[in-house]
Amino acid sequence: MKQVIAIYPGSFDPVTNGHLDLIQRGSQIFDELVVAILRNPEKNPLFSVPERIEMLQSLTSPWNNVRVDTFEGLLVDYARTVNARALLRGIRAISDYEYELQMALMNRKLNPDLETVFMMPHLSYSYVSSRLVKEIAQLGGSITGLVPKVVEERLLTKLNGKQT
Ligand code: PNS
User: Fold this and answer.
1) Domains in the chain: ranges and CATH
2) Known catalytic residue: 154?
3) By CB count within 10 A, which of 21, 41, 72, 119 is most buried?
4) DSSP label of 71
């Protein structure tokens, strides 16, 4: 039987508990799930690509059908190189929908054979985003429970290093 490979693309700067919830759900329905980090130097990320790879690799190690990779350029072109049939994206709230719909339809225009699959994270992560996590940590708020412990520690170390 044909194996269905899906890509879960994103910035993952940093990976949150919401991302991991989606990875877990995706790993249960796809034969192989490739977590693909966008290499975009223009975005000025907090964590370097190697740091994000390392964190994601260690956090996804419990799932043996999940692997971590990076890509640049068009997502549809990358999808062809890994023979992916599907793109996995998370929708937390209606506010995500408009942007996600536009991306999904554009990607379909670019490659009609690549299907976007939307999944909802657990309700308790519906308000979690990497951007807010960074902002809260930068302003001294607690991010416990929003990101894995290892990410929380690395975030605080990085921010403390910057403050000095
Ligand atoms: O985690 P993010 O930042 O919401 O992820 C956005 C991402 C990486 C999925 C999107 O920016 C993307 O696919 N970029 C690659 C370039 C591309 O294909 N652009 C056209 C999208 S229709």
Assistant:
1) 5-126 (3.40.50.620)
2) no
3) 21
4) E
